[in-house]
Design a protein that fits this description.
By secondary structure, the chain is α+β, with helices and mostly antiparallel strands. The protein is built from ten helices and eleven strands.
């Protein structure tokens, strides 16, 4: 019977995002709280010729510049494997959304090929490889709740956040360049700095305990350029969310809801915006 590995690639949101300064390598030094949510892609690995990547999404490149392809090529090169795999990406995570969809797919490829090729690598080794692919990829190896430091690749796991309903809303036809957002970040515009350690200390107590400390300094760049993000946040709060914030560099906005009924009311209240929306929940760390 042909070998087949199926991995779930979860999206992420940022519960807190601070920028500590510019690094010598050109990246920004960050301090973030990352959190997995249930909106996910499915990654299927079977036998193929060379490295083949295919997807259900039109317009998504599947060549050597695809992060899933790069993940397979990196693992094969590092462990002297001649790769003959077909990687299928069944995409549900919104594209170019600040939800780490591509990064999560790459992490799922590393996990999946670790099994497919019987490499028996531990997660810390996979995270080290993931850091070579992108800043969000190491977190996506195990997900859950974690502090991310450095340029995002230094992961400090936290206790799982209690399951909480999350509404995700991404403006359609609005793709934001992460590089552009970081380039235009100005620390002088920051009014409220998120409390990363306070969020970490309260994460086991649930979303409401963390809310006073949550924040995303990149909102000061993305929202002035795209004011509809602020309107979406306000509409979510008016519809019953007890917190709303932009995820990462945007443009996706997330809201915490007390229950599924409230989450559905929030989505209903957003109907006159042109959005991709999803109701999901927070997800715990992957069990090895």
């Amino acid at each position: 019977m042909a070998k087949k590995i199926i991995e779930t690639a979860y999206a992420k949101i940022n519960l807190g995002l601070r920028i500590l300064g510019k690094r010598n390598d050109g990246y920004h030094e960050v301090s973030m709280i990352m959190q997995s949510v249930g909106l996910s892609d499915e990654v299927i690995i079977t036998e193929g010729e060379g490295i083949q990547v295919s997807t259900n999404l039109e317009g998504l490149t599947c060549g050597k510049d695809n992060l899933a392809y790069k993940a397979a090529a990196l693992l094969a090169e590092r462990y002297n494997i001649v790769p003959n795999v077909h990687i299928v990406l069944n995409k549900k995570i919104f594209m170019a959304a600040g939800l780490a969809g591509g990064s999560s797919d790459a992490a799922a490829v590393l996990r999946g090929l670790n099994k497919y090729w019987d490499l028996n690598l531990y997660d810390d080794r996979l995270e080290a490889l993931a850091a070579e692919l992108g800043s969000d990829v190491p977190f996506c190896i195990s997900g859950g709740s974690a502090i991310a430091k450095g340029r995002g690749e230094v992961i400090l796991p936290l206790p799982d956040m209690p399951e909480t309903y999350v509404v995700l809303a991404k403006p359609k036809n609005l793709d934001i360049s992460t590089a552009w957002v970081y380039k235009n970040y100005n620390p002088g515009r920051i009014v409220n700095t998120p409390g990363i350690w306070q969020i970490a200390e309260n994460i086991g107590n649930g979303a409401e305990a963390m809310v006073p400390y949550m924040g995303n300094v990149l909102e000061t760049v993305t929202i002035p350029a795209h004011p509809q993000i602020a309107l979406i946040k306000a509409r979510m709060l008016n519809a019953g969310a007890y917190f709303s914030m932009m995820s990462g560099s945007g443009p996706t906005v997330f809201a915490f809801a007390e229950n599924k009924e409230t989450a559905e009311k929030i989505v209903e209240a957003l109907k006159d915006f042109e959005l991709e929306t999803a109701i999901t929940t927070t997800v715990g760390r992957k069990k090895v």
